[in-house]
């Protein structure tokens, strides 16, 4: 019995040693303090931060400097080719001895432009608290309600409140609460706050090259974007890239009367239709040989994909179609493949403006969503080879008169916009297991794991430049009207976000 | 010898009897008198006649009444549902005994609207005489030059001078010259001058029903349009009709992010491309079974078609393509078949406005040029059957939300504009032989015979309502800028037009 007690004592001592401080009850800490952080939130949200308007950036940098320095961080505004990016870091009093020592967090404080007339409030830059009324409409309620409690379904409406100032505010609140509760993080924390994300982060990769040593870390977490539609806790391991091509086919060099030349002058819309139709089957699968080469989804990944609680029926109802394309066995699987999507197609006019002509050209805009296995150069060259196989000469400009007379079938193929690259972090690596543990501490259950989200983010060059494992930790409600009018943040997500930050910053090393 | 002389005398007497008056030398008559008719021309051309502007019509009716009554015609302004049409007729002093007794001529005095700023002269309603300068540009010359002679390559520039007031003025000049030279026409001449042709002749068929007895005739000649591109004398025996259909295919009911839904939400542009591509082959031939049924071009017709002096190389150079579609063996043959031409195709946006979306719908505007063998109802039903064969449900309106969820493939098919019918008069019938003889007297050679022109004219319901043989006698130069700025009439065509009118009005019966 004594021996047993001794063993227990030793075990307890070891445990105590392993975690230097008793495990904090995150939930009670957040609930105790949260009402003190709405003032901070309000103060930051009233600062416009549209990256198109240079003068709006500096006040945000000033505010951030003060906020992070108050929490013991050293800060810098790092010059770039565009607006400066904000950098803050804090070393731990007692460093961890595990494999993860330095954590880098990426967020952005710039917000989308606004169209104030579309907002149902005085100004997008004057935060408003709303609850959903009996008729389903959002109704303004007094901000001071937040001092006596909150309903997780209430929302704060303001530009950038979810994309992406909210997560920054959650971090600041979490750091403050930890200070108040004397909870230390054993990690060297680095925070980089972008000022140009909403304009495509054009200078970020270059800045990373320049500040690579400063940003060095063991693991990068991107605290941006919305959770899974179900609003369940979510981690995202990758996203597709994008390349955009433009195809043009040609008819007569000026539009011709369709009576006089219909049946004689070649029709560019028919050419384009025949070309596009030849690239995919009835179910939306690309039929160009080799297009999907290199993609293999193993049984484990397939299991994780299948575990995402998507509702095909909800998507179907929401989007309004009878049956989806059949590129993957389900929605998540479809996103693991590159796409070949006709995003625009125009030849002459329709409706009241339609003329009885044989038009001169047809233009198709196509986007290829890229996955890590599909090099965009290879995809574009496969498309070119396919088009040439249909008897076309491919040019990278309009044909000359001589070329029109010489080649019966001409396509102009250009790339319209700069490419964005894909990224994907493997499931099961150490940072994944560590982060998953933090999420389980926060929510008491496994997060939804998104292997690859369909959209593209401008910070991928940054992720790739740093060459370290990266996982997105989306915190806000997906239905936040991001990029549109009436952007909002659900209070339940705000509070859970603070808790998530505390869990991550205090997460012990895992096995 | 005596017997022979007697025979010759009797023969001469008979000949004299057969043609009551000596055969006039049309060329010398025209050359002698033509300089006296430019004043008339000027007077009529200064009257605007845009059918969209009601007040412009009456002064033209007044002018025509005076002009025709001066030439011994009785006239009427026949009320219709729109502007009145002008009618004039004159019975012969000595009627012909042959099969053709009454000739009906259709022309129109209304002209296209004008954009004065695009005209290289003070006003489209102030006729200007021009010659082509050394640099190929048209240069104004003094109107009085016409009093001392003319160069056939000079042109008169004014709205409606070729389309279609010119032929009316040629008739008036011809009638006057015949009066001066005491040449009578043995025909009952009826002239109907439309006031709404350029706005689609919406009330003409109805007016014909009402005035059918007044318009009764043995042969209808339509003195409108331009000669063959070669400017050689031309007769046109028919024209294609037109029906327009609009197809719409559907994707998600609102545009979706192509990252999130590319590979999953069906793409309407792909659907449309696949549908359109399935309707025609690589050479532009319709592959829908039965589409060309009923059309057969016999050896004689094929010979006449082949005799039209088209230059495929000129068309190719002018339009700028390497090879034409292969519906017919040559250009004229292509026009004997119905077309299925994509005149407009739009799905979302292109260029700077392109978004990375899966669009919600694709719309194709299609025109079917009709020939007499192809009932438009039959063609449209063949197209419908073809689309249904591809697994589509066809609606005549947008689908409801329920239908979107129920049917994987939906097409909306509507007819956008009212149809225009085709017409064709057979080669070799009596009026053709008679008119050809008149043309040979005018020009000393066979006219080019166009079996069917590609375009559609709004007066076909009128032709069909009258149910009599009809042939177009185009008189003006084809490069007359009809419907555009700087409309003009070549003086050579004006003079030959007067001669053509005299030849027709004095043409004897043929065998």
Record keyword descriptors for this entry.
homodimer, 511 residues, alpha/beta, Aminopeptidase, Alpha-Beta Plaits, six-stranded mixed sheet, five-stranded mixed sheet, 17 helices, 21 strands, disordered N terminus, Cyt/Met_Dipeptidase (chains A, B), protease (chains A, B), metal-binding (chains A, B), M20/M25/M40 family metallo-hydrolase (chains A, B)
Cα shape of chain A: elongated
**How far is it from the N-terminal to the C-terminal residue of chain A, by CA?**
31 Å
CA radius of gyration of chain A is 27 Å
Count the E strands of chain A.
21
* Low-confidence spans of chain A: 1-20
The CATH architecture of the largest domain in chain A can be given as 3-Layer(aba) Sandwich
Topology:
Two copies of one chain form a homodimer.
Chain A lengths: L1 H17 L7 H8 L4 H8 L11 H14 L3 E5 L6 E6 L11 E7 L19 E5 L5 E4 L13 E3 L7 H16 L7 E7 L9 H7 L1 H4 L3 E4 L11 E3 L1 E2 L1 E10 L5 E2 H4 L6 H10 L21 H9 L4 H8 L11 H4 L6 E8 L8 E2 L2 E10 L5 H14 L3 E3 L5 H6 L3 E6 L7 E2 L5 H14 L4 E3 L9 H7 L3 E3 L15 E3 H16 L5
Parallel strand pairs in A: 3-7, 3-8, 8-20, 9-19, 16-17
Antiparallel strand pairs in A: 1-2, 2-7, 4-5, 4-6, 6-21, 10-18, 11-15, 11-17, 12-14, 13-15
Helix pairs in contact in A: 2-17, 5-17, 6-16, 15-17
Keywords (chains A, B): Hydrolase, Metal-binding, Protease, Signal
Protein name (chains A, B): M20/M25/M40 family metallo-hydrolase
InterPro entries (chains A, B): Cyt/Met_Dipeptidase, Peptidase_M20, Peptidase_M20_dimer
């Amino acid at each position: 019995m004594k021996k047993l007690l001794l063993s227990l004592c030793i075990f307890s001592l070891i445990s105590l040693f392993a975690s230097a401080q008793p495990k904090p009850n995150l939930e009670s800490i957040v609930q105790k303090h949260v009402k003190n952080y709405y003032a901070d939130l309000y103060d930051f949200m009233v600062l416009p931060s549209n990256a198109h308007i240079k003068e709006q950036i500096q006040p945000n940098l000033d505010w951030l400097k003060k906020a992070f320095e108050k929490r013991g961080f050293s800060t810098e505004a790092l010059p770039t080719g565009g607006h400066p990016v904000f950098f803050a870091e804090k070393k731990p009093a007692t460093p961890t001895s595990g494999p993860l020592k330095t954590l880098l967090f990426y967020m952005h404080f710039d917000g989308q432009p606004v169209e104030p007339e579309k907002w149902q409030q005085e100004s997008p830059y004057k935060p408003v608290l709303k609850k959903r009324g009996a008729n389903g409409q959002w109704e303004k309620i007094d901000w001071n309600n937040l001092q006596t409690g909150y309903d997780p379904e209430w929302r704060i409406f303001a530009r950038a409140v979810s994309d992406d100032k909210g997560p920054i505010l959650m971090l600041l609140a979490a750091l403050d609460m930890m200070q108040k509760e004397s909870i230390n993080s054993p990690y060297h924390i680095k925070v980089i706050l972008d000022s140009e994300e909403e304009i495509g982060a054009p200078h970020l990769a270059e800045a990373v090259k320049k500040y690579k040593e400063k940003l060095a870390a063991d693991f990068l977490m991107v605290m941006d974007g919305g959770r899974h539609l179900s609003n369940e806790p979510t981690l995202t391991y990758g996203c597709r890239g994008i390349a955009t091509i433009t195809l043009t086919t040609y008819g007569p060099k000026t539009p011709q009367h369709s009576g006089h030349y219909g049946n004689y002058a070649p029709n560019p819309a028919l050419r384009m239709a025949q070309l596009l139709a030849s690239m995919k089957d009835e179910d939306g699968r690309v039929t160009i040989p080799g297009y999907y080469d290199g993609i293999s989804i193993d049984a484990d990944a397939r299991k994780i994909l299948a575990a995402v609680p998507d509702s095909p029926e909800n998507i179907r109802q929401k989007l309004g179609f009878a049956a989806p394309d059949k590129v993957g066995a389900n929605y998540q699987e479809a996103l693991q493949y590159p796409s070949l999507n006709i995003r625009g197609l125009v030849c002459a006019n329709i409706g009241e403006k339609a003329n009885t002509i044989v038009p001169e050209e047809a233009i198709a805009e196509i986007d290829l969503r890229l996955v890590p296995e599909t090099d965009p150069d290879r995809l574009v060259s496969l498309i070119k080879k396919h088009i040439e196989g249909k008897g076309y000469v491919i040019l990278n400009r309009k044909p000359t008169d001589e070329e029109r007379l010489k080649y019966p079938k001409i396509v102009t193929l250009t790339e319209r916009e700069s490419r964005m690259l894909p990224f994907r972090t493997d499931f099961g690596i150490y940072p994944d297991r560590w982060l998953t543990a933090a999420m389980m501490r926060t929510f008491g259950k496994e997060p939804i794991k998104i292997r690859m989200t369909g959209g593209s983010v401008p910070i991928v060059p940054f992720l790739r430049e740093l060459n370290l494992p990266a996982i997105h930790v989306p915190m806000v409600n997906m239905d936040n009207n991001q990029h549109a009018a009436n952007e909002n943040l659900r209070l339940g997500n705000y509070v859970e976000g603070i808790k998530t930050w505390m869990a991550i910053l205090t997460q012990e090393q895992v096995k």
